[in-house]
Amino acid sequence: MATKILDLNHKKGWHDYLALIEQKDIYYTPEYCEIYERNGEGKAQLFIYEERENFVYYPYLLRTLSGITHLRKFEAKYGTLYDISTPYGYGGPITNITDKTEARLILERFSNAFHEYCKETNIISEFIRFHPLLQNQSIFSGSKPIYIRDTIHVDLTRDYDEIWAKYDSKNRNRIRKAESYDLRILHRDISDSNDLSDFMRLYHSTMRKNNARDYYYFSEEFFHHTCELLHEKAELIEVITKENKVIMSALLICGEDWIHYHLSGSDPDELKLSANNFLLDYTVKWAKERNYKSLHLGGGYIGNGDSLYRFKKRFNKEGDLPFYIGKLIHNQAIYKEMALKMSEEDISDYFPIYRHPDLFLTSTEDGEHSLLALT
Is-above-0.90 flag for pTM? Predict the structure, then answer.
């Protein structure tokens, strides 16, 4: 048994291991993790647990607690403290072992080794967003998976006629209606920074409309980093009216087999044109032509009952994939000491409790992450 830590100075090592894993995704690449390191959300690291030719691959963001004012006394007492989190999106440990029974066993040994590593390096807690397409929580024994909500995917291995039949009737009618408006599709060149202007305008407008949390108001720099680092793995698609007005824009990110409806925005004054329906139907056909196996649309804002989930569900009535998270505490004593200010009700609902916004965090990075922790 051996373990190693790789950072972004060793990207080739990340890719060498990834190449040996049958099922993986864009979220596991060092380039994707680097977007969030550059965004100030922590240091991107990859933990490798090896047993001869078999291994577990686990990327995460290492976050220092030094910027959180109310935790300074704990750092004075215990030294520099950390926690870790999956970057925005999905992740969690994966392995090159394809047999599920054997995979569960190596994940169990990995969990023990990683727990010891966290204790030794003052990593207090761990927050995991498991991958809905991989369903990797099913082989992970480190914590009890917590179901959050469903996400929706479209199975692109089916014939388009079969996919169309799984759209609900209202969606099909809206797509037909959108086609009557002479809408056009444009693929933007993301290497040209000027071509992000319409996307950013529509994205931020959508965030305001939906009263999104502060974290989701990504900066212009964030979007430039996303396009720079993912380049050919990112696709910016827009819907344009016959008057040459951009009314819908979506940033897709592409793995080897799966494509993700990552971030998007639409013009609230042009909803009657059903540009969202039009763009997603186009994306299904475009992705099928490129032999992707699944289009993952994600889930709703807060659960299975909200409008965003219902909209995505219209593209596959049978497309639900459960989304799970994991919560682990690696140093119970320090965690409990940090949690003394909070009520038992708060402790059960929020993780990690010491990042709760009611504790008046002063660091922008830590404040945003405290809000993100519930997603």
Answer: yes
